[in-house]
Amino acid sequence: DAGVIQSPRHEVTEMGQEVTLRCKPISGHNSLFWYRQTMMRGLELLIYFNNNVPIDDSGMPEDRFSAKMPNASFSTLKIQPSEPRDSAVYFCASSLRRDPRETQYFGPGTRLLVL
Amino acid sequence: AQSVTQLDSHVSVSEGTPVLLRCNYSSSYSPSLFWYVQHPNKGLQLLLKYTSAATLVKGINGFEAEFKKSETSFHLTKPSAHMSDAAEYFCVVSEAPGRRALTFGSGTRLQVQP
Fold first, then answer.
1. Is A100 within 8 Å of B101 when comparing Cβ atoms?
2. Cα dist. B3→A33, A68, B6, B73 in Å?
3. Per residue in A5-63, pLDDT tens?
4. Chain A interface, mutation test: which of B23, B102, B104, most A Cβ atoms within 10 Å?
5. What is the spatial distance between Cα B50 and Cα A11, in angstroms, rounded to a whole number?
């Protein structure tokens, strides 16, 4: 299996621009998670989906952030407009089921720099 | 609400000596507990997990952890450190279905000296 795939791996953009991060979960996994990692705040859960439906988006920082999962094999995290404080590494993870005992498999991350 | 505290932000050991990374958790329910490892510029990889079965859990690369409910601890150990173990380690707690997903500790950076 190819594992969780994220693109792009690196993104540099200017403040005010729209940024779209993409994730392909492991085939057959029903739950998908978006995390953000910064030095100041560590790893934070932004949102997670189960069977393509958003279950908990309470970690999404503000309205500038949105996430979609149009089908079982694709999800996007969009930031519009982007700000320098959004600079971070964004991880996508997937698990087989929505069960706290399930292992989450992480992608390699997208390193975002907003100038 | 669930929370997890990693007691050391940095741990330095010599190659061949034991490793101990400490983790305490708080949970209102019977939690599942995980240790993940992150090598530089990489994603996170599961080392081991506890899901209410045996309290001593063995993971990959010689790591193990013991769930101690009375102490609310889930410390990670390895008898002999290897240079390749240098990485950041995260202790993670997860509660019952329907609740918020994983809560990560702040991480412990392990350095292994030659």
1. yes
2. 19, 28, 10, 12
3. 999 999 999 999 999 999 999 999 999 999 999 988 888 889 999 999 998 888 898 89
4. B102
5. 36
Tell me what pLDDT residue B51 has: 83
B6 sits in the region (left: phi over 0; alpha: psi -120 to 50; else beta) called: beta
Distance (Å, whole) CA B3 – CA B6: 10
Averaged over A83-109, what is the pLDDT? 90
- What distance in Å separates the CA atoms of residue B113 and residue B13, rounded to the nearest whole number? 6
Q: How far apart are CA A26 and CA A75, in angstroms?
A: 12
Which of B24-38, B44-58, B96-110 has the least mean pLDDT? B96-110
Query: What pLDDT is stored for residue B3 in this prediction?
Result: 86
Taking only residues 55 to 84 of chain A, the set having a beta carbon closer than 8 angstroms to any beta carbon of chain B reads: 56, 58
Identity of the amino acid at A1: D
Q: Chain A to chain B, count of Cβ pairs less than 8 Å apart?
A: 54
User: What is the least distance, in Å, from the CA of B6 to any CA of chain A?
Assistant: 12
pLDDT at position B40, please? 86
| Chain B residues within an 8 Å CB radius of A24 | none
Radius of gyration of chain A (CA): 13
Question: In the 3-class helix/strand/coil scheme, how is chain A assigned residue by residue?
Answer: CCCCEEECCEEEECCCCCEEEEEECCCCCCEEEEEEEECCCEEEEEEEEECCEEEECCCCCCCCEEEEEEECCEEEEEECCCCHHHCEEEEEEEECCCCCCCCCEECCCEEEEEC
